[in-house]
Amino acid sequence: MTLSNKSTAGGLLACAIIVLAWFSPWLIGGLNLAPQDITNEMMRPWRPENADPVVKNHFVSDGADQSIVYRIFAQDSYRREGWVGWSTMTYGGTAQYANTMGLYYDWTMQLHRFMRFWEAWNLGLLGQVLVAMTGMFLFLRGRDISLPWVCCGALAYAANSQFVVWVYHRWALGSFCWIPWALWAVDAYGKGRRWTWALVPIFIGLAFLGGNLQYAIFSCITIVAIWVEESWRLVSTRFRKVPDSELVKSLLKLLGRYAAWGCLALGLAAMMFLPCVDAFFKSDSLKLHIGMYGRAAGIYPVGALQPLFNLAAYPFQIFPSVLGRCDSIDILKGFKSELFFVAYFGSLPVLIAFLAFWRRQTPVLARVLIWTGLLLPLTPLVRVLYQRLFLLFILGGILAFAHFMETASRETKLKLFKITSAVAGLGIAVWTAASLVLFFKPGITDPLRTKILAIGGGSSFGYFSGWMARRTDNLIHDFSIWSPQQMLPLLLLVAALMCFRLHASLRENHRRVGSWLLVCCVVAEVGLFGSRWIVWTDPQRHPLFPDTADSLVLQESVGHSGRVTTLMHPTGHMACTPFIPNTLSPYGVGSITGYDTIVPDGMLLPNESSGDAEKQGRAGVSHLITWPGNPDVPREWNKIWSSPSMDLYDNPLKVARNTGFKNTGDKDAFFSGNRPPMIRIQETTGGENHRLLEVPAGVSWIRTAENEDDGWEYKARSATEWQPVLRAPDASMLFPNPSPDEADVIEMRYNPPLRRAGFITSASTAALVLCIGAWVAISGRKRTSSQA
Q: Which residues form a coiled coil (predicted)?
């Protein structure tokens, strides 16, 4: 069937309406799909002092201090300079365009060029969910799945748990919203629609650009999986019998086609890959990544028993509400995992996905994806790829579920219903009995409550004792089967089983009604899961980084030419430290610290000698911020501001951002640790990627207290030839004055070679894809005409 079929078009329209309904809090209510309640309720200086926070989901704090901050920076950069390049906001200067976590090459980032921030943010998310839903719809329909299971699979995929839990980060959604489109294009080409040849690398390239490097690997695994499926069709004697030489030739031809698609996709995404891969390996050389170099010695990040504990948690993916919720306690931590790593797309679909792996009729693509999505997280690769690999299981599981519902016999479905119902009934009976014991003997859980509060008090937000107590009480309450946390998904599971039984009826009408009712149950399940995780915030109650007395003082005292360091609270960092790393960026105040996966090899490592006034001063740090009353601030710093949220100190040993040395001896003396005479140089443009320095006469060397990076160039304003800046012994920027005997204006620009090479490669590859795609389509049409 094709999209011109009325029922298919109607099904797609109905799915789109459901997706729009999911976004009705924004479309109708004016709310934002963003965790701004965390910022305004739990973080200084925005939170109320001496008040317990009211926050739905604190787990997604990275969305507040990373993902949103990246897009604020991008929007400012687009409007000021037209592109994202260098950033002075964190780490003393970093190649922000090469930050794989920033997703600066995703299409939704371009919305920030011409739309207001929240409009671009929300519309981008809505667009990505619609793309994911439509792609899965077409992919399943292209595999001759009937409409109910196409709709079910499309909506379950659009709202799957990995999209939901990482929705603010967008890594999963931004990348894998395009993967079903790539799979659809591969299938369409295999069915003779040669015009789709060029679409395959285009969709893979969009998947690369929409995610970080991690999800690019997941995309590659998916394409390898469908190649394995096609290869298996050629090899399997059940499909055809051909001579060995012809089979080898066919396999090589198939491999060549996929290799061409892959290389072209890499070329299309070269503008992202070249700088981001380079920045990743430079950052990786510092050995700072917690996931890769872990808290535990050995090959697993949290100990040698991690894979066994992780494996033990797999059955709970069928009913993840028992693992905790975002306003209680993360039970998955007991399995050496986290609540982020849930693979859910409906209880019955997940169960069928687990079982379908062993079913011979299950598509090879689904089996390979399920296998890789479940097995690889148990290997040492989890250090690099994390359990985000579950997204592969979800993708394969949805295909396996839809195929099972389409092709399994009535007897098979009845057998599954009976076994599942019996196990579920036994589980409900045991759970009910245990709940009654807890009801009549509530003191049983007191030791557990005490232990959780003792451990939780040392967490990032453990400072809020009342909030921690409520979370612990929620957990204990959720042990009971009649808790809404358990009862609602349990009722939906029971309803889904009843609908599944109706679907296995002998009567056609009953089967049709049962199918659509089961679709409704699955959509309700994923909707319930998403509603418990996703946060919609009121922009009036929870504004986007509003001005405070502290932020205004920082903007005035530090300004564009200064830089701050932060002394963090030793226990309640997220709650007590003012302006946690990255959050000064929206105010235009630079910091020597930051919180990112990608860290530059620069003047100072993150949090290195945070309170050392001399060392920080030489890196251009002019001020220090810390929590009120911090007794450990070194005496060299001078307090200039105090509030209930923040103490601000001036650094008397600061060195100007742009400094001139009269001669080589003074320059060498400075980098030897001395303090020779220095001349402050004024920078006038205030841009990130382009600066004008007003250099007085008598300056032989110019030093900029920012991390040196490939692409920084300088020249006298009247000159035509650019020269690269030098890397100073302390990793700052250094270059000789072209005309030391006279006052002049020195121009600096950031022109990274990998950015240029990436865009040239991407543009060239795009032209190549269009040419090859046109040739393939035209040659196929001619061949068809000649055969006719």
A: none
Is 348:496 a contact under the CB 8 Å cutoff? yes
Tell me the C-alpha to C-alpha distance, in Å, between residue 579 and each of 378, 548, 570, 591: 37, 11, 15, 10
Task: Write out the E strands in 476-592.
Answer: 564-567
Predicted confidence (pLDDT) at residue 455 exceeds the cutoff of 60: yes
> With left for phi above 0 and alpha for psi between -120 and 50, is residue 588 left, alpha or beta?
left
Cβ proximity of 705 and 653 under 8 Å:
no
Task: For 18-58, give the DSSP string.
Answer: HHHHHTHHHHTT--BSS-HHHHHHHSBTTSPTT-----S-G
What DSSP element (H or E) covers 468?
helix 465-478
- In the prediction, which pLDDT does 248 show? 87
- In angstroms, the CA 351 to CA 341 distance is 17
CA distance 308 to 426: 26
pLDDT, tens digit (0-9, with 9 covering 90-100), for 15-50:
999 999 999 999 999 999 999 999 999 999 999 988
- Sequence-separated contacts (24+) of 376-379 with Cβ below 8 Å: 377/310, 377/341, 378/307, 378/310, 378/311, 379/307
Q: In the structure encoding, which two tokens stand for residue 730, read together?
A: 């302390």
* Neighbouring C-beta atoms of residue 225, cutoff 10 Å: 23
Give the model's pLDDT for residue 564.
97
Question: What was the pLDDT predicted at 2?
Answer: 45
- Residue 788 has a pLDDT of 52
Long-range own/partner contacts, residues 414-417 (CB < 8 A, 24 or more apart): 414/501, 414/504, 416/352, 416/355, 416/500, 417/497, 417/500, 417/501, 417/504
Residue 740, both tokens: 């030391």
Please tell me the distance from the alpha carbon of residue 276 to that of residue 542, in angstroms, as a whole number. Answer: 33
Residue type, 539: P
DSSP string, 139-188: HHHHTT--HHHHHHHHHHHHT-HHHHHTTTT-HHHHHHTSHHHHHHHHHH
Q: 7 pLDDT exceeds 70?
A: yes
Q: What is the pLDDT of residues 162-175, one digit of tens each?
A: 999 999 999 999 99
Q: How far is CA 699 from CA 34, 239, 718, in A?
A: 50, 79, 18
Tokens 């963090």 found at: 568
Indicate the average pLDDT of the chain.
Answer: 93
Q: What is the CA radius of gyration of the chain?
A: 29
| Measured distance CA(721)–CA(357) in Å, rounded | 63
Query: Would you place residue 244 in the very low, low, confident or very high pLDDT band (cuts 50, 70, 90)?
Result: confident
**Across residues 504-533, what is the average pLDDT?**
95
Can you tell me the distance from the alpha carbon of 90 to that of 594, in angstroms, rounded to the nearest whole number? 5
pLDDT at 240: 62
CA distance 135 to 251: 28
pLDDT in tens, 268-327: 999 999 999 999 999 888 877 655 555 556 789 888 899 999 999 999 999 999 999 998
Which residues touch 758 (CB under 8 Å, ≥6 apart)?
270, 271, 272, 273, 274, 275
- CA 4 – CA 783 distance, rounded (Å): 26
Cβ-Cβ contacts under 8 Å for 245 (sequence gap 6 or more): none
Measured in degrees and rounded to the nearest 5, phi and psi for residue 314 equal -55, -45
Helix (H, G, I), strand (E, B) or coil at 599: coil
Q: Return the C-alpha torsion angle 293, 298, 299, 302, nearest 10.
A: -70
Query: Do residues 744 and 695 make contact, with C-beta atoms less than 8 angstroms apart?
Result: yes
CA separation for the pair 452, 472 (Å, rounded): 7
Overall average pLDDT of the 199-228 stretch: 98
Please name the residue that has the structure tokens 């009712």: 517
Global model pTM greater than 0.85: yes
Give backbone dihedrals phi and psi of 692, rounded to 5 degrees, phi first: -120, 120
